[in-house]
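G., the chain you wanted modeled:
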Amino acid sequence: MASVLEYITAEILELAGNVCEEEGKKTIQPRHINVGIRSDEELSKLMTLTTISQGGMISNINEYLLPKQKGKKVEDS
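Predicted structure as tokens:
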């Protein structure tokens, strides 16, 4: 049991560290942990009902609702 918890903790910290590096920060914040968990498919399923304090929300806007960009050319393949 302890090894499973250690593995999950290491996985979460690795993902949070990657998010932290991408944002150019040096310390892991609850937001980085939340983004890391939600970006991983398996951890996201495991932690669906989990709330991380000060974690914020993951933005998920449907592409249909975004304004269309003018002047964008469509390339034919």
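The longest helix spans residues 2-22.

Shout if anything looks off.
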